């Protein structure tokens, strides 16, 4: 059985999105102008090297951090302008979040079912009727049966715990589910079960955005967006990788090309009549020593 949810899938739009961590004495620019559209009902993986800004982007979409500059909308909401109360309301009913590390999403002293019910506690009254039941959610993530429903999180295997975290993230029936590294530290079989759970949530009519450093996880999502140095570097669709032309006209060269032609290399861009572009490096000029 597939639980059905009456709330429509929610999309995300980022335009020139900037985020800066302000530390003692210096700033870290974690995102330096992200342009990205996630259409309602899509499943997207945010991939890319460690420290590239994936978790920061996910936290911004979740309303856990506030943009320093640029535009960010989640559904109809403009998150750059939203006040604390509006962000809180959004987190309660419009967005489901699975934080990195299953245990951060679960209360250790509550059963699987009660963890889900607890997560549903903050949903506004007028949205409760069409919220899925705890049983439906456990079934959705492949954890049916009384034994699991009554189990404390520590009695579950790591992969099961992570699937419970997905159920808790999806518990408010929101149209957008965000998950940060939901499959890290799992064996292949457990990882695939977590991916099945995410796919079920997606098929139940929601938008799903997953942060992952695992290319296999990216392959299971409809689209992969590679974040590099705080910006969208490239996009993958059906196994093909594409560069993305940024708003300022810039493109990120893939690492293997960057190794051949390091930053500072002078290049001429030549367009052929069929639209193909050739990048021709200028020999002997502009290369850093
Ligand atoms: P990813 O999830 O791709 O590994 P993050 O979004 O966690 O990347 O980090 C992006 C950048 O921001 C990195 O340079 C990281 O060191 C920095 N960063 C992340 N979280 C914090 C924080 N709480 N305080 C300061 N810097 C941070
Ligand atoms: Mg991260």
CATH architect. name of the largest domain: 3-Layer(aba) Sandwich
The strands making up the biggest β-sheet line up spatially as 6-7-8-3-9-10-11
| CATH domain topology of the largest domain | Rossmann fold
Superfamily (CATH H level) name of the largest domain:
P-loop containing nucleotide triphosphate hydrolases
CATH class of the largest domain: Alpha Beta
Helix content: 25-40%
- Secondary-structure element string: EEEHEEHEHHHHEHEHEEEHEE
Rg is 21 Å
What's the number of domains?
A: 2
Strand content: 25-35%
Uncertain segments: none
The major β-sheet equals: 7 strands, mixed
Q: So what's the overall shape?
A: globular
- Derived from helix and strand composition plus strand pairing, the structural class reads alpha/beta
Ligand types: adenosine-5'-diphosphate, magnesium ion
Mean pLDDT: 90
Give the termini distance in whole angstroms: 63 Å
Number of helices: 9
**How many beta-strand runs?**
13
Protein name: ABC-type lipoprotein export system ATPase subunit
GO molecular function: ATP binding; ATP hydrolysis activity; transmembrane transporter activity
Organism: Phytomonospora endophytica
Domain ABC transporter: 12-254
